[in-house]
Amino acid sequence: xxxxxxxxxxxxxxxxxxxxxxxxxxQLMAPIVIFPTLLLAIQTGGAGSAVELPGFPPVQSFLQFMxxxxxxxxxxLAGNSGGIALAxxxxxxxxxxxxxxxIPRFAIVLGRLAGTAxxxxxxALWFLAIGLIFGAxxxxxxxxxxxxxxxxxxTAMAVGGIGAAxxxxxxxxxxxxxxxxxxxxxxxLSSAFFPVDLMIEPAKTIAEYNxxxxxxxxxxxxxxxxxxxxxxxEATLAxxxxxxxxxLLSASALRHRLRVG
Amino acid sequence: MESTAALPQWRTNLATIGALMARARNELLRVPGAAIxxxxxxxxxxxxxxxxxxxxxxxxxxxxxTYESFIVPVSMLQGAGFTGAAAGVNLARDIEQGWxxxxxxxxxxxxxxxxxxxxxASTRALIPGTFVLLVALLLGAxxxxxxxxxxxxxxxxxxxxxxxxxxxxxxxRFKSQSAAPLMQAGTMALILTTTAYAPLALLQPWLRSxxxxxxxxxxxxAARQGFVGGVSWAETWPGIVSLLGLLVVLGAWxxxxxxxxxx
Lengths: 261, 263
Description:
heterodimer, A: about 260 residues, about 0% strand, B: about 260 residues, mainly alpha, 11 helices, about 75% helix
């Protein structure tokens, strides 16, 4: 078997392990599905009248607008949960055994990220299904839905890179868990839950420059209005930026982990 | 020196509750970092919701011009909810580690064991509540007045007791910290499916129907009154009755689960 095929098998096996681990442990699954779904329902029902505000973009319903935010919240927490699971592996010695195995180091991290991407894919499908069941249409049609799914999956993997880097660096699940409030802060300071123009300062200015806002708009656009090349390009560039940042952090953290053991 | 055996039963029970509450306090003093998420989460929700949904006050039907004043009691109640759920998680940890088994073979009545957990949560809820209130006041939320302050702190301590009963019942039922998401999701749903984000008239029809039957809506309205206007008995007593009702129902459930655990 070629080296590439062997590495692909390792990544697949570790990715599947990561997905199974998440589905088997309610503590990991709840932040990805239960909380974003609950918040989506409550925010849609509680702040649904916001669509009547002057300046609110034309949408079919607040639910349609909020779908991208819910997906974003879910994928961010999937990245965080992936980091926690990796840190638990380090604490329990499982990662040490993988380091001793004849497999490339990057495959270990990539396996975890593949699992996180799979959870991102699940989140995208879950929230699209919820949207469709409760009457939200995808204006971009099937192509629009596919774009949203691909962007969510790619972002999950990109964000998972940062979670993995923190896990490798600290080797402590509680440290990675400590990122949870930060995830919420970054989300609130983006256009995930409301149009930037209607947000209050200083959140508005921060949201304008937050890379997550570009990704959210890239996911939201095909849902609420149709496919736009500008939003798609901006979202892709923002994801690429996070991937590069995550890769650099992960590479440095991996070297640190191999050094300290 | 007075021996414990000579004490009347009620004093022994009080001493046991005091000792178990002191244990909970020691946990907090020895690992202060453990309290940070419980304080940070409602504060982030307050700041985030205010920054994101602040423009909602432009809609007709809002009782106040500032969203800070409208949302701060909800964030304080959320802090109480998180604290109550954490009490359930801590009890699940104690069950997993065998500590609860040792308490159950002691001669302390079951209700005393439950009461100590619930009262510790009520006291601990003052920390996130005070922190969120200070942040809100700094950001321009209205001063609720002394009576309004008493009402809101009564509501958050009682709400923490309610959610601690909920968390404890689940901990005793599942005997595992894996039930933590259920404890947290339950308290979130209870507090947020009310007039938390907007007045009743502005809620979507399905949430309005839920909020109308959710007893915590009365609690939110009672806690909020000082921040958005004057405090009145007519707005306060439904909140007190709702909390007492929830406390009786969830407390009875938790006690039943504790008796089942002991059998």
